[in-house]
Specification:
The protein is an alpha+beta fold. The chain has a single domain (12-162), classed as Pnp Oxidase, Chain A. It has four helices and twelve strands, in the order αβββββαβααββββββ. The strands form three sheets. Strands 3-2-6-9-10-5-4 form a seven-stranded antiparallel β-sheet. The longest helix is centred in the middle third of the chain and has 9 residues, at 58-66.
Length: 171
């Protein structure tokens, strides 16, 4: 049975929710990564993701400049690295190297894959929409990759304040 609540109270009960790491590469070849909590599938045919990325984020700037990115679904042991790339700005630094995230080359885009992620989706920018205070980036999947170890568990945000935890995949 439901009862009336404030929006803040209801939002606090929406967990767990997915968290992804979006990787990009600058035109001069420097890799970049950012944790993103606002992510969803926008289309199944063709497969597209929609991401909420702040206007001022270096990742947003790189996506607009290069028109490509990778959406990586991190593995539970990547929690500390995901917090790092999500809480530090990337301009002028290599957040991937700082937190030891292993990279692999993508097949269709310049942005790197995260080697230990559960899955990586290479995307090309379709459009940016501005329905409110946060731009929505829509990317079409042009290649997909999965970790060879199917027992790896996905990382989720399980509570307000960016509390992260792995959840075993459904077999």
């Amino acid at each position: 049975m439901q009862q009336q609540a404030s929006v803040d109270e209801a939002i606090a009960r929406k967990y767990p929710e997915p968290v992804v790491v979006v990787t990009t590469r600058s035109r001069d070849g420097r890799p970049n990564a950012m944790a993103v909590g606002w992510v969803a599938i926008a289309s199944s045919d063709p497969l597209m993701f929609v991401l909420g990325i702040d206007d001022g984020a270096y990742t947003f700037e790189l996506i607009q400049a290069t028109r490509q990115f990778v959406v990586a679904f991190p593995e539970e042991n990547m929690a500390a690295a995901v917090l790092h790339v999500g809480s530090h700005h990337g301009r002028g630094r290599d957040k991937l190297a700082e937190c030891g995230l292993a990279q692999e080359p993508a097949s269709r885009v310049a942005a790197p894959l995260l080697a230990d992620a559960v899955a990586n989706f290479e995307c090309e920018l379709v459009d940016v929409y501005r329905p409110g205070d946060c731009p929505l980036v829509v990317g079409k999947v042009v290649a997909a990759h999965v970790n060879r170890d199917s027992a790896r568990r996905r990382l989720y945000t399980v509570a307000p304040g960016h509390v992260l935890k792995g959840v075993r995949p459904i077999e």
